[in-house]
Amino acid sequence: MEFQEPKVIGSPLMYSNRVTLKTILESSDGEMVLVGETVVVGGWVKSSKEVKKQPVTLPPCAFDTDHASPGRQGLTCLEILESRIPCFRTIIRILCGPASSPAVREKLESLVPKPTPPSTFFLQINDGSCASCLQVLPDSTDWNMYISPGCLEKLSANEKQIIQLKAEKILHVGTVEQDKYPLSRKRLPLDSLREYPHIRPRTTMVSSITRIRSTLDFATHTFFQKYGFRHVQVPIITATDTEGFSEKFQVTTLLGKTSKEEEPVGVSDADVVSLETVKAAIKEKSGVVEQFKRSDSNRESLIVAVQDLQKTNELARQIEAREKSKPVTSVKPDSLNFNDDFFGRPSYLTVSGRFHLESYACGIGNVYSFGPRFQADKTVSSKHVAEMWTVEVEMAFSQLGDAMKCAEDYFKFLCKWILDNCPEEMKFVSKRIDKTITHRLEYMTTSSYDKISYREAVEILRKVPDKAFETQLQWGVPLTAEHLSYLADDHYKRPVIIYDYPKAVKPFYVRLNEDGQTVAAFELVVPKIGTVITGNQNEERFNVLNTRITEFDLSRDQYEWYLDLRRHGTVKHSGFSLRFDLMVLLTTGLIDVRDVIPFPRSHGKANS
């Protein structure tokens, strides 16, 4: 079997005969090589402009085109006829004379055809490979093209070089229903685009975000493969609760098998977000609006935040009306016999894959996984949806400090990789979303991060003189988003790592410190985002882990396999989890995670 040689600049894509616009528009070498060449491109028309031409004016001469002067060769009969229309009108005025009837003059002039003003269409097309558009000059007005071969030209306009494609032939046309196409209107707000997740990738905004997301995905694998980590795929369906704090999605095949006498088990008729959670979201989004008003961010981001707040207020009014009109039907999970279920026991969509990674770390060394994680949390938040992608890492023979160092290096690697490999996308998001984003990423790449204990963080927050936090601060209470935001945004003004949390606020498997009150856990907190990475050293001591399972009132049978890792050759090991969607949010400067996830899944929203 023969394989096609790797493509070079200017060559068609593998498995396609077209050249990407990124090759044409963003490669200086490609520009020089391809100008004057015939290429095939594909794309979607973003905008069009019609430019009227001046009518052709010819000097008086005979109509014999076979013996026409060289300056008139190649003209059509219609063009020649239109150029003689002023002569026809002059003849009519002479023949009719000043005394002739106006009606006769009008009738004669109506016989003379009126010229059609010539025009040229200039199209801007984009194929999703870059943020820039290619100007296309089609050979006809039928310009809803998909793929068109043509010759590339270099033009000079306002001292700026422009690459233009002069189309010779249209190979395929994909028309749209103009009255139904959601992108017919210019620059829809991001919250409106969420209603069309299957169409929004065609916008420059979402396509740029997707390329940044793809680059971060590649950078993740590049980093861990470079440093000897093995990629392990962990299951999405699990019977083990790895966190102990979050609501889970239950997986079952029993719902369609209830008897006719039993009340059907299903979702409540009032399947809506609770009014309390929406009011909490209104408060959070109001804070975001105020933050944008105080900052130097792009005004468009402020407008989007205000529109999002207005929609949330409208949602609150709708819920209030629905709660008054609809009764709530209770769900009866006790009526299900899970012995008859597909897996023979209660099973859930995984919240975390680190348990399963531990088993491989204790066998082959450093490992990582990358995949979706699920939480059935109905809270309305700009930083959380039901399905979020997570990068998880486990390292054998390592302790808390090792995990903190690896997490910091990985985070800085992602920031630098985006700056180095997505320059055009970063220019676009800087212009349209947040003009400070490039500077912030550069600063986070080069600066050192302060590391403080939970106790030190509490002391700093207690000494804040002119700010009253909503949650009363005392030792042992989880740090809220408001607390973390103050530490990263106002106090340190850069990422900060907080470690040694109280044992009551972290999962049971985190290693207990010598003081018996704190555990070896940490969080990497980033300005404007909050916690991006959470990590810890795992409890490797069998007796301590067994006691912690009892303290959390967890089923011992459920964790026997996890205890086996301590029974049979335990070693010190640690790891962390990076919330990948929040990392994309950070690098794009956006404020809502639903705008950086291709098909976001949130409470009441899974429409495609």
Radius of gyration, in angstroms, nearest whole number:
33 Å
Portion in helices: 25-40%
Number of strands: 18
Query: What topology, given as strand order, has the largest sheet?
Result: 8-12-13-18-17-16-15-14
Blueprint (SSEs and pairs):
Layout: H1 21-25, H2 28-34, E1 38-42, E2 44-52, H3 77-83, H4 85-96, H5 102-110, E3 119-126, E4 134-137, E5 145-157, E6 160-167, E7 172-173, H6 190-193, H7 204-226, E8 230-231, E9 237-238, E10 250-251, H8 275-294, H9 299-325, E11 347-349, H10 354-364, E12 367-374, E13 387-396, H11 400-421, H12 423-432, H13 437-446, E14 450-453, H14 454-462, H15 481-491, E15 496-502, E16 518-526, E17 530-537, H16 542-551, H17 560-567, E18 573-579, H18 580-588
Parallel strand pairs: 4-6, 8-12, 14-15
Antiparallel strand pairs: 1-5, 2-3, 3-4, 5-6, 5-7, 9-11, 10-11, 12-13, 13-18, 15-16, 16-17, 17-18
Q: Could you walk me through the main structural features you see in this protein, from its secondary elements to its overall organization?
A:
With 608 residues, this protein is of the alpha+beta class. Among the domains are: 21-51 and 117-172, Nucleic acid-binding proteins (OB fold (Dihydrolipoamide Acetyltransferase, E2P), Beta Barrel), CATH 2.40.50; 204-251 and 350-595, Bira Bifunctional Protein, Domain 2 (BirA Bifunctional Protein, domain 2). It has 18 helices and 18 strands. It has helices at 21-25, 28-34, 77-83, 85-96, 102-110, 190-193, 204-226, 275-294, 299-325, 354-364, 400-421, 423-432, 437-446, 454-462, 481-491, 542-551, 560-567, 580-588, and strands at 38-42, 44-52, 119-126, 134-137, 145-157, 160-167, 172-173, 230-231, 237-238, 250-251, 347-349, 367-374, 387-396, 450-453, 496-502, 518-526, 530-537, 573-579. The strands form three sheets. An eight-stranded mixed β-sheet has the order 8-12-13-18-17-16-15-14. Strands 1, 2, 3, 4, 5, 6 and 7 form a seven-stranded mixed β-sheet that branches. A hairpin with a 2-residue loop joins strand 5 (145-157) and strand 6. Helix 7 (204-226) packs across helix 18. The longest helix is centred in the middle third of the chain and has 27 residues, at 299-325. The two termini are 40 Å apart. Mean pLDDT is 80; it is low at 1-9, 61-69, 142-148 and 259-272. This is asparagine--tRNA ligase. Belongs to the class-II aminoacyl-tRNA synthetase family.
